Amino acid sequence: MIVLHEPSELRAACDRARANGHRVGFVPTMGALHDGHLALVAAARRASFVVVSIFGNPTQFGPREDLARYPRTLEADCARCADAGVDVVFAPPGEAMYVAGEETRVHVGEVATALCGAHRPGHFEGVCTVVAKLFTLVGPSLAVFGRKDYQQFRVIERMVRDLCLPVELVGLSTVREADGLALSSRNRYLSQDERARALGLARGLSLAVAAFEAGERNAGRLRGLALGEVTRVATSVDYVTVADADTVVPLDDRDTIPARTLVAVAARLGATRLIDNVVLGEDPAPLEARA
Ligand code: PAF
Question: Residue with the nearest Cα to atom 5 of ligand 1?
């Protein structure tokens, strides 16, 4: 495995791999890798040459968000990548991805307006801008993302379609701790008490899945089940939303939900913002989906 820092080196390495007949698989990350990321790498190994990027992208963080304290663990991340059979880790400095005087951004549409889009202005524009740059440098046949960031996956899917980017996207199910908590780089910020309370997110979503499986189809009642549990444990709640699973447009509480419907949650435990979700009709209840 090689570790590269310069965009030109990355492009040359991927060009060489393609010239040698490889398909390139790509996993973009912000580092602090956990088993969820390793599941993405395992899926990317469907391609014969695998690139992982590690870059804390400043344009997707708001001025009062946690970019400065986002965990940076490059050495450990590289060791995990090497063990997982990655060919290239790309860890650029900020100025290599955002050259002096840069001003171009990817504009995002309605799929990015609700949920995290409503609570993190500019977030998805920043995500799409950096992902588009990385796709251009890597030229992957296949790129793998986690569906814990469900809206992010749908926003990137829309960008790939709208900009005719020649890459197959794969969205992987959320990987969870043995007790059901969704894996996240931010879990390491949680105190013991916050860690225990954070399980309320998975519990709330599990209540919605159980009700759905028992026949409940009213959006408001399903939302209320998740919201009740999340409100009980969280320091504050950004949203508990029932939405169309493809467009991520929120449903009205009076709506009867379709066969596949997203229930998504964002809440703070202390200062740490966590997200989680299930697609009713598709995902098992998080508390049953234990390893
Ligand atoms: O999901 C993430 O870790 C980031 O949003 C991504 C896709 C690497 C872009 O910075």
Answer: 127
The widest CA-to-CA distance across the chain, in whole angstroms, is 56
Q: Which of 37, 107, 119, 123 is catalytic?
A: 37
Which residue's alpha carbon is at the smallest distance from atom 9 of ligand 1?
127
Q: Which residues contact 64 (CB under 8 A, 6 or more apart)?
A: none
| CATH code at 2-172 | 3.40.50.620
Which of 72, 123, 131, 275 should be mutated for ligand 1, with most atoms under 8 A from CB? Answer: 131
> What homologous superfamily is domain 185-280 in, according to CATH?
Pantoate-beta-alanine ligase, C-terminal domain (3.30.1300.10)
Pairing type for strands 88-90 and 2-4 reads parallel
* Known active-site residue 123: no
Q: What is the 41 CA–ligand 1 centroid distance (Å)?
A: 14
**Which ligand 1 atom lies nearest to the CA of residue 56?**
10
CB atoms within 10 A of CB 168: 14
pLDDT in tens, 167-225: 999 999 999 999 999 999 999 999 999 999 999 999 999 999 999 999 999 999 999 99
* pLDDT tens-digit readout, 29-73: 999 999 999 999 999 999 999 999 999 999 999 988 889 888 899
Whole-prediction pTM value? 0.97
d(CA 57, CA 65): 12
